Structures are given as C-alpha cells and as structure tokens.
Amino acid sequence: MSSAKPTPLQLRWQEQRVGMFCHFSINTFYGKEWSNGTLSPAAFNPTRLEARQWVETAQAAGMRYLILTAKHHDGFCLWPTETTDYSVKAAPYQGGRGDVVGEVARACQEAGLHFGLYLSPWDRHEPCYADAKAYDNFYTRQLTELCTRYGPLFELWFDGAGSEGRVYDWERIMEIADRYQPQAMIFNMGCPTIRWVGNEDGLAADPDPYVVDGRYLPPECDVPIRQNWFWQADDGYTLKSLQHLLAIYYRSVGYGANLLLNVPPDNTGLLDAADCARLLEAAQTLRRRFANPLPAALRQEGATVFASFAAPAVFDHLVLEEALEDGQQVDGYRVYAGERLIVQGQTIGCQKIDAFPRAEAVELRIELNRPEARLKGLTAYATGYEAIPALDDPEIDEQRWARID
After folding, report:
1. What is the largest CA-CA distance in the chain?
2. What CATH superfamily is the domain 294-381?
3. pTM for this one?
C-alpha cells in the first residue's frame, strides 16, 4: 500500500459521511436537465423558496453538509455576480435583488450545517468561453466572488462535464481557493483533495482505494434521488425506492466513501414532499437498524486483531473502522467467530459495513493482510437483516463494475 497520508481536513471531510446535493437553476423552471445558456431568466421566480426547509430536511436525514449548484453548465448564476447579466439580477425573483447562494449559505450557517458550492467550469452562455485566456479571467472572478462573500466553504465542486480537451488555468483557480477557502475540499478537477467515484449511481466498490497516483484522494459518490438531477414535474415515478436508497448507502458509506445525494428543489423553491418523505424514511430505517451498537475492545498483535465484547453478543452486521492517520493500509481482512469465517473483504477505510448470517461470539479474531495496518474500531449490530440490500435494478451493479474495470 502507498505511504500517502491524509491531511486533518481530509479526515474531517470523511467523518461527515453524507451530504445533500441541491441542483437548482434556470433548468428547474423549464423542465430541462441541461440547457445551452439561451433560456430566459424571466421564468426564474421561486415564489416559496425557503432555504431553511432544505437545511432542516438535510439535518433530519442525518446529512452533514449541503452543496448548491451556484452555476451549472448553462452559465446562469444563482448569486448577483458582477461578471454577467445572466443571473438572478435579470430574474423577477425578489425584483432582481435575490441571492439564492446567500440565502442557502445563511440557512446552513444558522443551523451549523457545512456549506459547499458547485461552480461549473464549462459555461455554455458566456461568449468569452471560446477565448481560453479571457474565460480564465472571467471564471476566476466568479470564483473569487463566491469564495469571499458567503463565509467558510466546506467543499468546492468542479464538474468535469463538457470540459474534455479544455485546459483551464488551474494554477490561478487553485490559488484563489487556497487563499480564501483553504479549508475547503476540492472535488475532481484542478488540484483535488477528493475524487469522483467514477459513476453517477452512488456506488463505490471493494476495494475502495483512497490513494490514486500516489495521492490520498478519498472518493465521493454522487447520485440523484430521482432519475434527473434537476427537478422535473413529470419524473416523480422515477423516485428511488426505500430499498434502492438503502442499497446505495451500504455501497457508498458502507464501502468507506462519502455519499452526496441529490434532492432537487422544485419550481416553487421547496424540496418536493414525496422526495422528502422517501429520504426521511430511508434515514429512519438506517437509524433503527443501527440503533443498538455493541462496541468491542480491540487488542492487536501484529496482523491479528482480537475484538472482545463485554458479554456474549449476537449480531448480523459489523462496522469496521481503520486508523487512517498514517494512510490507508488494509487491503485484505477476514473476521472469524471461533473457527467460523463470518466475513471477508479487501479495504476498510473510514468505515466498512458488512452484513452476514447471524453470528454469536464473545470475541472475534480479525486477520489483516498487513501487520502495519491498524483498526480504530469494531462495532456489532443485531439488525434482523443478514444481507446487504439489493438494488432495484441489478444491471446497475454490473454496469458500475464494467465502468471501473
């Protein structure tokens, strides 16, 4: 395994586990997923926008951060930028004096929820995009506005879509991020500190490597709660089932990745009631499953770890945590109850959730592939469920593995 080590900020980010993505823009008002920068701002008028509802829903679902699309590929800006007229200033929302970024930032700050921003490098509206140098000047001005007006940012999300073959001045872009928001995680492009998992299904894999090209880059899994990223009036039937959301959780957070679940506000400015109900149903189900932890005391002897419970324990889930301060070291493990092998896997990372037929033990033996690897914790749970939830569409899993390979 690599000797690359995480920074304290990377470890802090990994500890947050789950965030809410909010795709909201001009597209929301035209029923579009992507647009080309020609949609009129005249339609942007969310008459009931309430950022506190977004934040309260995220917190009720156990989410620790929220990321807003300040500008998507169409170039429409949700803040009153000085760089373009294609923004909320040209919309009827609040008489052209609205600032959606500001409203969401304040709601997050008041509630103690981490706040991050998505700023698309690709801009299909801006005429100067064709001139790389001019657009770099334009884009760095936009980033500077966002990094200096809205308080601490937890994450800056740089989407690579549409930028194939384009070279941006990432040295300048990163200098702005480092100067004004040094604590922010950088997603995907530039000089990233976290990486894209490689699909939009919300699924990580085992192994789930944190070190890529010699750098510690833990993954974030992004996935929409419906089929589309932006709210559309006619796609309610695509809302993911409870079972599917549970399966995503086990295959993202349960595989040591962060999960960024998109819950898009509708054209009134509120989260859809059906989306909220399904999200909270999934959160409540997970809380019930993991409500009664059975922590174990650990004793490590080389590559063997003994996990002792205070009394004989009956369980069907284990949550393993790796000590990551010196980097990710575990690349193989087996857990035994007596002579019975109850589970095995490859990486553990910040958290690995395993499910299996019910076992009983007062002590477990964990065999690690590497003597330098260390476990931080082991907790057992009796959930009543002896397998990882299945995805609604098993083809998704097959496609995901094909893409990764």
Report:
1. 71
2. Galactose-binding domain-like (2.60.120.260)
3. 0.96
